[in-house]
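Q: How do we represent a protein-ligand complex in a form that can be generated token by token?
A: Start from the inputs.
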Amino acid sequence: MSISPETRAHVRVRANFACEYCGVSERDTGGDLTVDHYQPRTAGGSDDAENLVYACHRCNLYKSDYWAIDENAPRIWNPRSSPPDEHFWLSNNGRIYALTETAVFTIRRLRLNRVPLQTHRRRTLEQTAERAMFEQTRQVVEMLARTGEQQHRLLEEQQQLL
Ligand SMILES: [Zn+2]
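Then emit the structure tokens for the protein with zinc ion bound:
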């Protein structure tokens, strides 16, 4: 069995074209990402969409075919079963911190604090802040323009009265 093109397309769109483990997007990497079997095929994992995770090459490489062999073995975070903010906290410096044991293991195994990722996260945070500041400036400029128009109208009215 292999993943059908339809399933692959579904997984890609569902992930919003970004790695579900680290968040890097196709736009960032300049090409398609890979499809990872959360439960590896070698451990009996299926090709069903529910077992598939859209993943960048690095995350897929580091995760490899890891599978918890028993109840006590550490697990890799499954993006299918819980949202990232239940496991990870993103700091302004671009590092992510673990909130759960699963996250501790996932960060270590997938090297989610690799330097280029931290740089990428910092840049994204800065761009978001810049956009917010730009938007605020735009609103202030608009408000000033409206106030200017109102003053101009008032002045015209006063002149007519005189
Ligand atoms: Zn990734």
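The beta strands are 34-37, 52-55, 88-90, 96-98. The chain has a mean pLDDT of 95.
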